[in-house]
Fold each of these.
Amino acid sequence: MKATITLLPGDGIGPEIVREARRVLEAIAQRFDHDLLFAEHLIGGCAIDATGQALPEASLAACAQSAGILLGAVGGPKWDDPSAKVRPEQGLLALRKGLDLFANLRPVTVHPALAEASPLKAERLAGVDIMVVRELTSGIYFGTPRFREVVEGVTRAVDTMVYSEDEIRRVVKVAFQIAMGRKRRVCSVDKANVLESSRLWRSVADEVAKDFPEVRLEHQLVDSAAMRLVTSARDFDVIVTGNMFGDILSDEASVLSGSLGLLPSASLGATRLGLYEPIHGSAPDIAGQGIANPLGTILSGAMLLRHSLGLDAEAKAIESAVFSAVQEGCRTRDLGGTLGTAAAGQAVLDRLS
Ligand code: IPM
Ligand code: MG
């Protein structure tokens, strides 16, 4: 197969970790006889510096025309001025929205060799295997009106949480489809005891459930879901939730796996084109030092092969190489080890064949 992959290294540790993922993808292409082309483009703070925009038009156009997009991270203290007109994060949000990538898949599993790396008790972690499906292009992240104003000398700010039934239906449907290939359980997370948009979310989820009689749906309020994630994470199979709840819960869930650095994500829409990125951020404190964990990005590359190129065997080959590397002691600093970024990438490469 011949395909072009857009690389968006971005800011902070982004370039270092994307480099390792690219090496792994190139090795896979060679081994399975595919022709993968890579095109690098700007996003985030580096794009603001070069063009004044967080997502230059050329980047969005290149992404839209490619088969899949692999992103490192955006943001950093250099662009953190709260009064700045343009912020790196806007680039990421514009990309998700511009390509209508409404379903964000964030798998969380616990590698048996890393149960000790989590601050949670190891016995609570065995068998944890969760897929968080986060709505990504609506909710409070995108709702309008959104503004700041001064009323009688007092400044106030307004954000709007809005969901239409169509937006809820399409993402909940994705969650049910995924559950069909797993343990057939969906937990829909909301705040229906307070929010009108959550009450709509709940009723639409109930409707979708009727088309999937083999899947068991339960509803849970986000506060108790947050608690259950650290007390009995094993109970979860697929979690589906709105944009902001999903943002928060997926970081929380990552603690189960031992490190944010390990976890990949896929953002999917109605077509095969998807955006793949590790769920961690740009980690400016360690940028440029060659010590960041590239495994979350490498695993995101595997998700790209699976979901955008339909190359499941190739994706599995990467995933099992990562699994073996971790099994055999590949530990970057976030996992209590001393391995650098390139060495961790090499550990995966060595186990590919
Ligand atoms: C994430 C990040 C982003 C989000 C930020 C960088 C805008 O936290 O992908 O989870 O909130 O969606
Ligand atoms: Mg987040």
Amino acid sequence: MNAVVLLGPPGAGKGTVAEVLVDKGYRHVSTGELLREQIRLGTKLGLEAKTLMDQGQFVPDDVVVGMIRDLIESVDSGSMFLFDGFPRTLVQAEKLDELISDLCGTLKNVFLLECPDDVIVSRLSGRRTCSKCGAVYHTAFNPPSDDDGCDQDGCELVQRADDSEATIRKRLLVYAEQTAPLIDYYTNKGLVDTVDATQSIETVRNAVLEYIA
Ligand code: ADP
Ligand code: AMP
């Protein structure tokens, strides 16, 4: 298996970029989305994760790594994975290296989406997500074509519980403490391609596509 990682603070636009890479054949794996699926299903894992997520804290490494391991092992070994929101800690990054190496795979690129805090706060405050398919919009920067619902399935668009300003600030602190060290980790391996994520959605997507081509 081959893999690429989308790295960057919450709200930098990782999920938005991922949409175009899916069209290129990548299998999009968002750990945040996998956890929200567990919450929707009302599982024990989901209930435990929700308390942490609503406070802007991370779910324990072993839980997240377990989900990724199960997923990788259950799909075609020729898959190209696009990890979004994973890894988020050094422990997770080391575990991902082990999982990839066990499957004789390669981590091809790490795309670092750089975005300052004030831009992130305005993006996350206006983010709206489809309650059914998870498609992502923004009230001002990327509104749905029909105000009443999702362009894909017409379902209700909702604001995530963790997209309140206080929780966004907490998530930014956790990112700086626990995830930002991954920039050096992957830079030392020569894997990082940096993208200015403050640009328009189309420009950011094209920048990533150019690196991949
Ligand atoms: P992440 O997956 O990194 O948390 P999202 O892809 O969900 O971020 O994007 C966060 C919010 O910002 C969404 O409302 C999205 O529509 C909006 N957004 C994403 N990329 C851009 C961009 N380049 N310019 C303006 N808004 C953007
Ligand atoms: P996201 O959808 O990527 O913004 O993630 C939403 C929330 O899910 C995060 O704030 C964390 O609480 C949790 N989460 C997602 N991915 C991870 C991860 N790799 N490690 C720990 N917690 C995670």
Amino acid sequence: MAKDNFVEQIADIDSDFPQWYTDVVLKTKLVDYGPVKGTMVIRPYGYAIWENIQKELDRRFKDAGIENAYFPLLIPMSFMTKEAEHVEGFAPEVAVVTHAGGEKLAEPLVIRPTSETIIGSMYSKWIQSYRDLPVLMNQWANVMRWEKTTRPFLRTSEFLWQEGHTVHASEEEAMDETLKMLAVYEEFAKTCLAMPVLTGRKTEKEKFAGAVATFGMEAMMHDGKSLQAGTTHYLGQNFAKAFEIKFLDKDGALKYGYTTSFGVSTRLIGALIMTHGDRRGLVMPPVVAPVQVVIVPIASKKEGVLEACRDLKEKLAAAGVRVVLDESENSPGWKFNEWEMKGVPVRIELGPRDLEAGKCLMARRDTLEKGEYALDSAAESVRALLKEISENMYNSAKARMDRRIVRANTLAELLAGVDGGNFVRAGWCGCRECEDKVKEFAQATARVMDGENTSDTCIVCGKKAERTVVFARAY
Ligand code: ZN
């Protein structure tokens, strides 16, 4: 049965989600395993998603006044040790170069796990006066964090990301920047990835090593687990003091700057796969989909069919749509399965009968619904449909997330909640022991703290709660 080919190719999404994920990323040719354990090769279909993510985010950064720069991959080991929390947090994950050019190096070099230190050292050279502030820079780069258990896109020893690094004259301005970039990420996730997120501050335990405060956006995956999809950090003067980032202020006093950093990575590709995928495979959000429309000719040997398909392809491409015409020898049924598995948002079928009627058939990947559209206005119809698909994907994912955020008043309720694939909101007194207890009892971690005031009691110790926390199992 050609119709159900996909069932044989990928594991069942509900009964074996981890295998479904592995099958989908490999079989749709997004990624492959690299020869060094824990590394991944991003194949063209996967890299095209990243390019679209970059394009969309980069425009938003530039609108926010951020400029791109590039800093070196290698960081002197001594830099890493200048900020105490930072070195402690990253020490277990760093890869170190000890030999080069056939000789042992005088000082070992760290392959960047993140660039606060090297960028901080350069900022200290470049910043003299309040007139030099704020400094708003970003770099698109690879980083390396030696991980023990890895999965393509979600956790790999080398990954691609962007890291923004800013310096400000005041605490308030730096905090504003931290929250502003979190809002940029949230809007980007909604508009471009059709992905709803929860945003909020991280607990001390979950914050970035060296930050005063970390804010994150968390997305709910198909199995109800959480995925940290992006973070922004208010670094206070921690790195400014470690790297002597000082400026002469208006009042003539020499002061330390306040810094921030923020990043998203190729993890976002894993996030969109696990947010939107279904039993047939990928479901690509239209804004970042490498291919937005595939045209499948029906009875392609019949006179005029291929010509009409090529003509339609040109029209769509001219309208700015990323379109592919599948002229391969495979049967239409085989092509339907293949492109469905690859998650292409819209499939257009065009055959002799459609041509006669001046119509074409469009099938949506998100709902699998089909409809007839006039051929001569196909480009406008496609653009409207892509927009509708994007909104529908966001709304469905949002409805699912809202439905699966539950409250708990006891640890047993919390455990039942996360066992059932939910995010669980609960009161927390703010102490590390209670947070650890939740982890131990329910294998769930504090994802974000809600800003709201709470009259709750701590779910562990019963004391007055300082915060409401969203707990979940996480990738
Ligand atoms: Zn407590």
Amino acid sequence: MLTGFEELRIRARSRGPLPVVVAAAQDEEALRAVKAAQDAGLAEPVLVGDETLIRPLLSSVGLPADIRLIHEPEPAPAALAAAKIVSGTEVGILMKGMVNSSDFLRAVLHPECGLRTDRLLCHLAAFEVPGDKKLVFHTDGGMNVAPTLAEKKDIVRSSLRALADLGIDCPKVAVLAANEVVSPKMPATVNAQALMEMNRRGELGPAIVEGPMAMDVALSREAAAHKGIKSRIAGDVDLFVVPGIEAGNILGKALIHCAGAQSAGVILGATRPVVMVSRADSAAAKLNSIALACCLAVGSDSPGQTFL
Ligand code: COD
């Protein structure tokens, strides 16, 4: 169990500093995060982007003028250049700056950038929600738009590998839907049941997977009891599997903006860790994401498998 981002940042310190290459680095919050990560011994920053916009930000965030900076004014080409630099490092991290998510992900997927593997890439978000005793994880609210059942299987398997690298060995996994009744009219419920059966057959990795499950049951043992649902995970879920990108994206932003959650986001399945948070996210969220990427890059208690 990870109690929160402070524990994650402390763990990450023993893994760093790692090269962090920022794509379209003309983003003050990203630069603040990189500076904080450098001060914490997590990052050796490399900036790729519009030098005319980046230079004036350097002194205001406290980064040195002689920092490694590659001038590429257009965001999409900057993402391609940054991805190529990261793939040339042994354990570097790619980080999204002021570039649209789809353009950024196309650079990660570009066959010439060297970050693609034969695995499905997916997004894993972490949240520290005020009042909760542990970090929780959500997938996939950031990359795969409407994953098929086979893709959801890959997404769950990748996320479980990442959680294992973080020392969470038998996570409790809720496959979310609108309710607990399986109905062909609600494909998310059918997929959730299939994923639970895959888990029973041992196809997903060590985990307790339950679904379909509505969010109230996933979050509350009392709600489960009230609905007469027997669950081993209600109120204590580690990983929430959302039905599609919209649900995940809306849920994550609601946690941040309505519940005051802190967040982090990474892409799993590439040859190197990739930090992907929203451009509007705070410097703290970007720092948390660098810490998460550091822990996944080098593994935690056991040698890391996520990015091998
Ligand atoms: N994993 C591995 N390979 C992939 C993946 C994946 N998740 N997605 C696509 N590919 C491969 C395909 O097999 C193909 O070879 C090539 O990449 C191109 O695939 P397309 O045609 O589907 O690619 P695009 O460019 O149309 O779309 C890929 C994106 C990842 C850009 C797209 O799915 C996307 O925009 N996702 C949502 C990103 C987003 O807006 N997130 C919001 C977060 S703030």
